[in-house]
Structure formats: C-alpha cells, structure tokens
C-alpha cells in the first residue's frame, strides 16, 4: 500500500470529524436506536479520525493501512444491502380506481 507516493486519505480529515460528531449527536442516537434497536457504534469514526490525523502529521504506514481497511469495509457493507422491493416500470393498471371499501362497514 505504501508504494503510492502521493497517497491521500480517501476522505479529508474534516469529513471523519463531521461523521464522528454526527454519530454522537442526540438526533442520530434516537434515530439509530429507533431503526436498529441498538446504540450507534461511533468508535470506528473516532479511530478513522485519529488515523487520518496521524497520517497528516507523521505519514504513518499503520494509519494508511487502517484507513484503507476501514474504507474497504464500509464499501463492502454498503454493497451487501440490496434492494428488497422490485422497482416498478409503470403504475398498476387500476391505480386510478377507488379503493375497495372495508367489509365490516
């Protein structure tokens, strides 16, 4: 990995800081807990921010490796979530008709 001479982190360090700050916000906590039933894991964003800053200050090979692995894992996680619903090409033929009434009314 260290063979690329002008290597740059995949994102600017400010992006990692913004993601970490968002992850720790009350709004994100409530939304994540409501959707997933668990607390959001913000530790990876903090590690990425520390690695990015370490790369900027010392050009650490360990920081470079850590950032590359983290971004690779994020891309893989995003790829495994496929669409659940089949997208329509056109609306149903009877979309304009009134809805059927409830039977117990």
Automatic annotation (TrEMBL):
Protein name, UniProt field: Synaptic plasticity regulator PANTS
Subcellular location: Synaptic cleft
Record-linked InterPro entries: Pants/Emi1-like
Family according to the record: Belongs to the UPF0545 family.
């Amino acid at each position: 990995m260290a063979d690329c001479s002008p290597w740059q982190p995949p994102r600017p360090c400010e992006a990692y800081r913004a993601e970490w700050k968002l992850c720790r916000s009350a709004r994100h906590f409530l939304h994540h807990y409501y959707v997933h039933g668990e607390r959001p894991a913000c530790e990876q964003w903090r590690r990425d921010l520390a690695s990015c800053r370490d790369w900027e200050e010392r050009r650490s090979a360990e920081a470079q490796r850590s950032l590359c692995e983290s971004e690779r894992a994020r891309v893989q996680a995003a790829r495994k979530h496929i669409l659940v619903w089949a997208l329509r090409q056109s609306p149903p033929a009877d979309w304009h008709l009134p809805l059927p009434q409830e039977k117990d009314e």
